[in-house]
Design brief:
With about 250 residues, the protein is of the alpha/beta class. The chain contains 11 helices and 8 strands. β7, α10 and β8 form a beta-alpha-beta unit. The structure holds phosphoenolpyruvate.
């Protein structure tokens, strides 16, 4: 945690759920959201964003997307622009997730352009960084994260950073608490060096196999201002338990 920053627990639903299932999950999250010590965000597949934004409107659970195109419009078959997401009721968008970087060859430059598009559309970007297992074993984790931050964030960045070690996503493995704290300290230092006092107020989320059983210890670490949760966000009780652990 960082003094003065209210934690955010964000669910990355990835490519899961029919509209009916997504609606039921969203309703269950909303039903348990009152009084939690964290803000809540759910990021369903594109297709469900408008319905869930309407369903959750006016309540404590925000809706985000998992990607956007860097252009506002054009000949980009299958893509969705940031203004379209804003128009559909999204407030946030996850960008540069390692699955996008790996599956869709997204470079830091591409991520940076998408972050700029999100900001221009009035969306809050959740920019993801994190090292692979080989990079961690090679002692390069910190350098990789520094480079990703330098190249993925534009100069006018105003948003959220998520540290997600690639090898911890969906694997049930997490870095040690000391390793998480060390990288989050590096991220904070980098944000402050680049963005001044605004960097001190930016949320830095941890992501990678966060579960009800490990959330309290991780969320208590300095500069961990919430979580980006994949698998456990698909079970409302687990997602809410992680949010409860932010207190
Ligand atoms: C993620 O994909 O953003 C993630 C953190 O997944 P998981 O919680 O399943 O490791």
């Amino acid at each position: 945690m960082t003094p003065g920053i209210r934690p955010l627990i964000a669910g990355n639903w990835k490519m899961h759920g029919t509209l009916r299932e997504a609606g039921a999950l969203a309703e269950a999250v909303r039903a348990g959201a009152a009084g939690l010590p964290a803000d809540l965000l759910v990021c369903p597949p594109f297709l469900h964003v408008p319905s869930l934004a309407a369903l959750l409107a006016g309540g404590p659970v925000a809706v985000g997307a998992q990607d956007c195109h860097a252009a506002t419009k054009g000949a980009h078959t299958g893509d969705v622009s940031a203004p379209m997401l804003r128009d559909a009721g999204a407030t946030h968008v996850i960008l540069g997730h390692s699955e996008r970087r790996a599956d869709h060859a997204e470079t830091d430059a591409v991520v940076r352009a998408k972050v700029q598009a999100a900001l221009a559309a009035g969306l809050i970007p959740v920019a993801c960084v994190g090292e692979t297992e080989a990079q961690r074993l090679g002692g390069e984790a910190e350098a990789v994260v520094r480079r990703q931050l330098a190249e993925s964030l534009p100069d006018d960045f105003a948003g959220i950073v998520a540290y997600e070690p690639v090898w911890a996503i969906g694997t049930g493995r997490t870095p040690t608490e000391a390793d998480i704290a060390a990288i989050h300290a590096t991220i904070r230092e980098t944000l402050v060096a680049r963005f001044g006092p605004a960097g001190q107020g930016m949320r830095i989320l941890y992501g990678g196999s966060m579960k009800p059983g490990n959330a309290k210890a991780i969320l208590a670490l300095p500069n961990v201002d919430g979580g980006l949760v994949g698998g456990a966000s698909l079970v409302s009780a687990d997602f809410l338990a992680i949010a409860a652990a932010a207190g």
